[in-house]
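Anyone have tokens for Gibberellic acid methyltransferase 2 isoform X2? Sequence:
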Amino acid sequence: MDSARLRPISPIKKTMDMKNAKELQTLRWAGDLHRILCMQGGDDDVSYAKNSDAPASAISLSKPFLIQSIQSMKLFKGEPSLRIADLGCATGFNTLATIELLVESLRQRYYMECSEVPEFEAFFSDLPSNDFNTLFRSLPTLYDGKRQQHYYAAGVPGSFYHRLFPKRKLHVAVSLSALHWLSQIPGSVLDKRSLAWNKGRAWIDGAKKEVVEAYAKQSEDDLTAFLRCRREEIVEGGVLFILMAGRPGQVQPENQLGDPDSRAKHPFTSSMDQAWQDLLNEGLIDEERRDTFNIPAYMRSPDEVRRAFDQCAGFEIQTLEYRKIVEHSKEKQEEWIKDPISYGRAKANLVRATLKPMVEAHLGPNLSEELFERFERRASADIDMLHKTCFYGVIVVCAIRK
Ligand SMILES: C[S@@+](CC[C@H](N)C(=O)[O-])C[C@H]1O[C@@H](n2cnc3c(N)ncnc32)[C@H](O)[C@@H]1O
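Reply: yep, here.
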């Protein structure tokens, strides 16, 4: 695609961006990904709050499992308060609606089955870089003049790959569309001399064996670390409910997204790599800058998830399933076929909502906006892709702390 029409960047801005990016890059190489990984805050068009339809569909799909696990959960009679945590809550409707659903379902059970209904505490937990202010502003008010709110809310900043709560604190822990984010990019993938150097790609789909193996190992270490921490924090009989992006069982990890259309259309694959290549071809970045950007996400298979539970022990799995969700409705697809520009914009906003803080840390604000603009144009221009239907895979796990 011709990129000559794109807005040029002033040389001064470019130098400042590169300097900024170099400093931030050092931060990242030092293993501080958790300081920059976050969804885009606020509530404008490029915010996560306005671009979380796919996770919302994943939650709707898994809602029956969540309700079922709450219905069959042991009741903690005599406990003055029940404690629920959402790990990787971000901002927006999904976390609020999930906490509300959990509190209401448990309230009703206690009301029907026990003489007393406990109070509820909800812990919204995410990395410190999360926009907790926007989240807190959107919480229902504690007392609306007529009735007391159903739960007391608190924010817990930190990585879910570490301990976040004291021992035996939680009765229910959920993590929704968050655990596919890894704790770090494996060191070998960022080492130019290593066989796992991920040249020319922003992600691992279709990457060479060594890159995929490094990500798979990181994913295994991360998931077992997550489970070991939750094993300490969840009371006996408590529920751990996980929904994470995943891949079907029979599919090898280098094929992260299942079928070829989904692979090609996913925002982390072709259009993303082309956009980086555009910046390189236009002399706005060098090869090293492109090749050191990697997306820290990994889609696990159900077997990989089960293996981590086996390694960790302490949980009894009740449900472990892979499910597929269609990317968007038929009507939306038809609308976009008629208006590819708005398709490109919607996809670019989705990418901004999930990757902007990370890309900005790598490129600085101006160059990262250039990248997103190129992504938008690449996505709009791929008319064939618009006719294809793409799926997201999710893994749903419900487990009880033994
Ligand atoms: C795609 S959002 C999902 C948000 C929300 N649960 C939902 O379903 O809409 C993923 C969230 O996981 C968070 N996250 C990623 N890695 C994390 C980690 N190591 N510890 C805590 N949160 C993390 C991100 O900051 C982000 O807010």
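The first strand starts at residue 81 and ends at 87.
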